[in-house]
Design brief:
This protein has 440 residues and is α+β, with helices and mostly antiparallel strands. It has two domains: 6-256, Hypothetical protein af1432 (Orthogonal Bundle); 318-440. It is 48% helix and 12% strand. It contains 23 helices and nine strands. The chain has helices at 20-26, 29-32, 54-75, 82-96, 106-114, 121-131, 133-140, 149-157, 174-177, 181-185, 190-203, 213-217, 234-252, 255-271, 277-281, 284-287, 292-296, 299-302, 305-311, 340-351, 390-393, 417-430, 432-439, and strands at residues 6-10, 14-18, 220-223, 226-230, 317-328, 359-362, 378-380, 386-389, 400-410. α22 crosses α23. It is globular and about 70 Å long.
Amino acid sequence: MLTYEHMIKDPVHGYIGITRAEKCIIDTGAFQRLRRTLQLPTSVYVYPGAVHTRFAHSIGAMHIASAFGENIAQRLGLVGRDEGSRLIQFLRLALLLHDIGHGPFSHSFEETILYPMGVNHEIVGSRIIESNDEIASCIEENKDLGFTPKDLSRALLAVGSEDWPVLGYSGVDQEMEKSLFYVLKGPFAADLLDYLIRDSYYTGAGYGSGIDWERIARSTIPLHRRLGILDKAVDAYEHVLIARFHMFATVYYHKTTRAVEQLVSRLLEESKSYIDYREMVNNPSRYVELDDTYILGNPSIRDLEPCRMLLNRKIPYTVVEEKRLQIPRRNPLMMLALDRGFLNKLLLEKLGSNYSGVVYIDTPRLPLNPMLRDDEVLVISGDRRVIKGFEEMSFGTLSHSVAIVRLYMDKRHLDKREQAVKTFREIIETSSMETLRSFY
């Protein structure tokens, strides 16, 4: 339905077709910056092959979005119409641009720099899309696209299907159109599928190998503000959940990866003396100068202790205790009890100020296995009847989610280990409910 004027050879997906508008955006300075932003900037210190970038991931996610778009356009009766091509192109560009707001060191930068400013990479990305002249001209010069940079910006900002921008396809209910949100941010979104497969490939972990993403993409059913999945694709989706569990356990939450993240956080904090991040975040034209090399190539920053440690892979932290906590699926608020800032404040209150900078608790941003809401994934039969929620017919027997909580110490102060471990166990093992109540 789209005309591909160029091809990219990708090691994960093979040949990927590129439209004129997509090539125009890929060639902008704002997007080329993603070549210098690693997808896994801390995991690369554990898995040497993990040198892939946000640039490659964004193109891969765009490619997967095509299969979703083609399937949905067909089910909405848009095949053979210009509106069908418009739907597919909009989804492809939304996925192509979904990470354009990521800063150097990706999620570490987001937690250390962006969150304290009240923004995230999606908010920053939406600002770039709306204000960048190169990106705007790529869209405006292709007037037959039928949407604007503002529409793409709104897609990135959407936190639920109700926020999805309605472009208006004739004969298609607006509530059905809003189901497209889940291609970008749903439980089997194109973003998720590509990063599981790509990260697995480049790390060598292998857990994402063989994920049948095409079966999933071509088995989705647009509903009112929802995407269902045909019962024949349930096995393929189970593979995604299993791969996600093991990738989080062995790659994203690897104990050394998380220690490197702490080191990077220190580096970013200390680099504030040399880089005015607030000014750059508030000015999209300056923000697109930021990438991994912008920080690591700064002579003053390279003299900082955490930067020297990072460049020479001298990781000062080691795990001295680890707990895997089961969180009842019917009580997801227990994740709030694992708030990292709160637990570390409690730890230092109990240990005393002489442990400051010596010990810290690391908790996950997300549990290892996703805690799907009861209505998150609806399984549909061939005659379009809703059979039941995915949890009821598949992984519902997994009654708990799992979160890894670790106690780290500076290797130079392991003589303080015994008291630190004792206090950590007291907090985690005997005070979980009290901690939750205190958190509120």
